[in-house]
Automatic annotation (TrEMBL):
Species assigned in the record: Aegotheles bennettii
SUPFAM superfamilies xrefs: Nucleic acid-binding proteins
Pfam families for this protein: Rep_fac-A_C
GO BP field: negative regulation of intrinsic apoptotic signaling pathway in response to DNA damage
InterPro entries documented for this protein: DDIAS (IPR043522), NA-bd_OB-fold (IPR012340), Rep_factor-A_C (IPR013955)
Official protein name in the record: DDIAS protein
A Gene Ontology cellular-component term: cytoplasm
All copies of domain Replication factor A C-terminal, residue ranges: 9-94
């Protein structure tokens, strides 16, 4: 496998997902399986109490340079400056908002957050490390 890293200057065409945060394993960063009391990582076997779950950003974008379209996913704390808080803090804010508004889908991001993310990224040019 070629592990050469390149930089790609490209503009964001669209945001491909509306859920920007996921429960992440602290060891391997894979998505955790959660229930009301425990979490479990299917990849590395890590387990723990649900209250100790870590969260991580995952933003899937469609981008374009001068010649091509690409689907790219940006992970982790490099997104903290764009959201203004860590993924864990934003997840808590979303949970509080969903509870106050009566939203039953715990993975749902408020529409206003989705709109803000689209406004922040769509049409803007970034340099991506790929």
């Amino acid at each position: 496998m070629n592990s050469v890293r390149r930089l790609l200057a490209a503009s964001v065409i669209s945001v491909q997902n509306s859920c920007f945060i996921y429960p992440a394993c602290q060891k391997c960063f894979s998505r955790l399986m959660l229930d009301s009391r425990r979490f479990n990582c299917l990849k590395c076997g890590c387990t723990g109490e649900a209250k100790d779950t870590s969260y991580r950003y995952r933003l899937s974008l469609k981008i374009a340079d001068t010649n091509d379209l690409f689907d790219i996913t940006v992970f982790g704390s490099c997104l903290d400056p764009f959201f203004g808080v860590t993924a864990g803090n934003l997840w808590r804010c979303i949970q509080d908002f969903n509870q106050l508004s009566g939203e039953t889908n715990t993975d749902a991001s408020p529409g206003v957050l989705v709109q803000a993310v689209e406004t922040c990224f769509i049409g803007k040019r970034f340099i991506f490390g790929v």
